[in-house]
Amino acid sequence: MTASPQAGPLLRAENLTMRFGGITAVKQVALTVNPGEIVGLIGPNGAGKTTCFNMLTGFYTPTEGRVFFKGTDITSHKPHAIARLGLIRSFQKTNVMKRLTVFENVLTGHYMAGRQSLLATFFPGETVRRAEREARESASAIVETMGLSRRMNVQASLLSCGELRLLEVAVALAAKPTLLMLDEPAAGLNSHEAGVFGETLKTLVGTAVQSLLIVEHNMELVMGVCDRIVVLNFGQMLAEGEPRAILSNPKVAEAYLGKAAA
Ligand SMILES: Nc1ncnc2c1ncn2[C@@H]1O[C@H](COP(=O)(O)OP(=O)(O)OP(=O)(O)O)[C@@H](O)[C@H]1O
């Protein structure tokens, strides 16, 4: 499904810094995501995770620092131009239309990411009809990949929380990401649902996407799916490493437990 793997890091950010007036939300963060990796970006509330996401995807222009995607400097690119290169993000707010079915939502995701002109939509020729066929086939395949085939024709408003979270990822996949960045994709899931969700995410890498970058507060999920974790605290990098090393890092425990541990 995805293009041949990138040589070198897929995403590389250096010295990322964001200041809002007198507030430094993110300071000198360095981040890489390699092909085939699931990277977690974690940290306590207000640590700067969403601000980093916004800088990586062109929603904010960093005060300092640079972002490279597939070797191209995208620091001052607009969000839509970055999305076209294959860097797709989700938002904390749902991208699902509740009155549409699961299939219709994913199909709509294809059109949102489409390049088709309005004229071609109203006066379709063979090219448009083929694109339509391909979009339907692709939407079906994505629904299956996300384990939602049995719920294909069910209205999104009737889905369980776990199914809804899977559908949100399915809609993002319709944009054909090379790197998919998910902002709190497992919000509100119970332990069983988070387990299913995590296992599904792992199957995407190397098939539907090359890599994943995840901001998530559910530590069980993060520790279970990520190859590497970057920890932010007060806008700065506190630690980076494999899940086991992060779990046993006293600085990380202190950042999370802080006053409670004192
Ligand atoms: N537009 C803004 N203007 C001013 N300050 C901001 C702005 N956006 C974020 N901040 C501040 O920057 C810091 C980092 O916020 P950010 O939302 O990136 O953290 P986060 O790690 O994503 O938090 P959470 O886990 O709660 O979503 C916070 O202190 C926040 O108040």
What is the topological layout?
Elements: E1 11-20, E2 23-33, E3 38-42, H1 49-56, E4 64-69, E5 72-73, H2 79-85, E6 87-89, H3 102-112, H4 118-122, H5 126-145, H6 161-173, E7 179-183, H7 191-204, E8 211-215, H8 219-225, E9 228-233, E10 236-241, H9 243-247, H10 250-261
Parallel strand pairs: 3-8, 3-9, 6-7, 7-8
Antiparallel strand pairs: 1-2, 1-4, 4-5, 9-10
The chain binds adenosine-5'-triphosphate (ATP).
Summary keywords:
alpha/beta; 10 strands; 10 helices; 6-stranded mixed β-sheet; binds adenosine-5'-triphosphate; 4-stranded antiparallel β-sheet; 262 residues; 23% strand
Task: Explain the overall architecture.
- Residues 11-259 form the ABC transporter domain.
- This is Branched-chain amino acid ABC transporter ATPase.
- It holds the Pfam family BCA_ABC_TP_C.
- GO terms for molecular function: ATP binding; ATP hydrolysis activity.
- Keywords: ATP-binding, Nucleotide-binding, Transport.
- The structure is a single chain.
- The strands form 2 sheets. This protein has a 6-stranded mixed β-sheet with strand order 6-7-8-3-9-10, sandwiched between helices. A 4-stranded antiparallel β-sheet has the order 2-1-4-5, covered by helices on one side.
- It contains 10 helices and 10 strands.
- Strand 7 (179-183), helix 7 (191-204) and strand 8 (211-215) form a beta-alpha-beta unit.
- It has helices at residues 49-56, 79-85, 102-112, 118-122, 126-145, 161-173, 191-204, 219-225, 243-247, 250-261, and strands at residues 11-20, 23-33, 38-42, 64-69, 72-73, 87-89, 179-183, 211-215, 228-233, 236-241.
- The chain has 262 residues and is of the alpha/beta class.
